[in-house]
Amino acid sequence: MAKIKHNNFLDTVNEVFTDAKNEGVMHLYAEGEYFSGRTIGIKNRKLFHFGTTGYLGLEQDHRLKDAAIDAIRKYGTQFPLSKSYISNPLYRELEEKVTLMYNNPIIITKNSTLGHLGVIPSAVKDQDAIILDHQVHWSVQSAARVLKNRSVPIDMIRHNDLNMLEDKIKSYSDKRSKIWYMADGIYSMYGDFAPVNELKTLSQKYPQLNFYFDDVHGMSWIGKNGTGYVLSELKELSENILLFGTLSKTFGASGAVLVCSNEKMYQEIKTFGGPLTFSAQLEPASVAAATASANIHLSPEIYQLQNELRERIDYFNELLHQTDLPLIDENISPVFYIGTGMPHTGYNFVNRLMNEGFYVNLGIFPAVPVKNTGVRITISRHNQKEEIKGLVEAMEYHFPKALEDTYTNSSRVFQAFKLGSKSITKTPKTEITHSDLTKQLEDSILKIDEAQWNGLLGKNGVFDWKGLKFLEKTFSQNKLPEHNWNFRYLLIYDQEKQPILATYFTVSLWKDDMLANMGASQTIEKERESNPYYLTSKVLSIGSLFTEGDHLFLNTNHPLKKEALNIMMQTMETLEHTLKAKMIVLRDLSDDSELHSYFQGQGFVRIKMPESCSIEIEENENIETFIERLSSRNRKHLRKEILAIEPLLKVSVLTKCNKKQLREIEELYTNVHQNNLGLNTFSFPTALFEQMSEHPNWEFITINPLNDSNKMIGVMLCYKNIHKTYVPAFVGMDYHYLNEFHIYRQLLYQTIKRAIELNFQHIALGLTASFEKRKLGANVYEKYAYLQTADNYTLELMGVLESS
């Protein structure tokens, strides 16, 4: 069977960024001939600047500017030579002064990204292991993944989860020399801190534990000599810690700095650190500006600057306390995050603030989960109290307006961020409703009119009314949790009782790696041998893992279709909360640009599913005329690999099976299920096959070799849909006979023959193996799923595992 084409993560990120760009909140260009730091020119307007990472404002200090200008005059715009050969004349002084700042050996790098790429592969040995905080900066994760090529295991924990970290440490302690935990000192979106002292205590319990801290957002505004948050907590740097700071951002110049107290490791990294050896060195202007900044950091003035910034941070915190705005993490850092929940709300809020004269950053996927979109506000010494107060007043006024514009409310935002808010009592959890629409939500198909359901959603799959009745019975009262599903049915009507939207949902246990690549699933399945529910989650999904097809009916011509979709969104959020699901998945959707924009704005990311295949049977068609419709090349394939084999096989259609046959069918299905890690799901309950045999809509196409007619080697499990759609839902095969009899191709052909015999009009061939199905005349369609999750941990962990 053909391999599944897995989604490209970069495609998903590109779609999200493109959406934000089209809304006018990202990829902007600053304007003007002069930049003060207090304001910034955007779209022909001068806005107060609350988006800088130059928290102390040193990038505008005349001493840094004068030093940079003088260096260009003396040494040119660059010093075009590898630093391994010779450094420009200004480097020595900079290195001496930064060494004094940290009181430890340092290495200056071109930037932090290249620094990580140079340091991590040098510091981490083949006998070590790496554990990443899932919110550690992308540049650290990217550099760490290079070590997959050297078979260094890379694992990940949920953000700041020390219990999970300790469990991972224990799992590697007998196998690895050093265990490196990599984290940010201050996280760039929410402005929250790494629990540095608790981590230090953990390292005393586990001597193998080493730390790699990226503290670029903690630099300058805190700590002795402005050496950052991590060192302000540790007081001194032990040999099991590598610390990264920056000479850009708050420091006001360019470049980054590694601090390493382990002399042996320091020499190894400095002697040959990949990009540290081969990349260009800092430009003379940057070195000179950094030296001027280092002089400030080594003087008492740095503490005056820190206090001035702290006053502004405290003032902003004080003003926010008086509002109901959803501040995600309250602390003393200059980074603040106000949650908006859905991207479209974030776009609206940012544009409203820009129209009021304030520039803030949009926080969006993949830096945060899509449903945790918000505005990142940074406070700097450039900001004056009057504009800080003005920003808070503007946010307090426009936040409810942005919610209203995007058909949401503050309760949904607080729920998305799992905040226990002071405002929750002031803002009741009211559902989004529309006076012209009526919602029907049921927990069984038996409560839905059969003819109406079949008219709306009964055409293409095993989810006509009788099919869903069958599924409800099959996936209830089973022993294993993965075999028990919750069903919900949603219909939304207009005033004339005409349906605008209809769908059904299931809540069931999914494997988190369902759409990961085979290598990742193989790694995870080894862990599941002892822990069967490792990396599994309850998922609320349109449709189910059993069905494939168009699970969503939407009258796209109805003027209230968007309002109906809004009600569906709120319904899913309520179900997610009450049924304790961790993810929402919208499955099997076509490439509809309008729906894509809507779902993306509602906090979903799109991934490409395996292609869907179907065959349309013409009126009065027989198998001979069907074959004539195939291309000459495909007819040749059919004659050679299917028709030539058919006389060697006994082909049967079983509408009711004995116990032996049911046991054989289950075994054949299990073979395929276990072999198909590319679409990794739980198996189905044994009761399924028995109930199929008893159900009038199910039948089994089986094949046996004529020379061993008692041995079943292939089966297609087929459903006869109310609308004359034939659904070969699942396949079973004996792989020992796969190539000899071309079992899968033979079963596809026999499925087509059977549908024609039944005078059916449509064959829903389902997902995957599109190459094989196309050779037998199938039409192939691209399908997409939309995912919404409370955090990015699982997505990022899959990325780590897939890179192996």
From TrEMBL:
Recorded hits in PANTHER family, A to Z, give: CLASS II AMINOTRANSFERASE/8-AMINO-7-OXONONANOATE SYNTHASE
* Ribosomal protein as UniProt keyword: no
**Any idea which GO molecular function terms this record carries?**
pyridoxal phosphate binding; transaminase activity
Positions in coiled-coil regions: none
Which keywords are on file for this protein? Aminotransferase, Transferase
Record-given protein name: Aminotransferase class I/II-fold pyridoxal phosphate-dependent enzyme
Q: What Pfam families does the entry give?
A: Aminotran_1_2 (PF00155), FemAB_like (PF04339)
Per the entry, which co-factors are needed?
pyridoxal 5'-phosphate
Residues covered by the Aminotransferase class I/classII large domain: 49-393
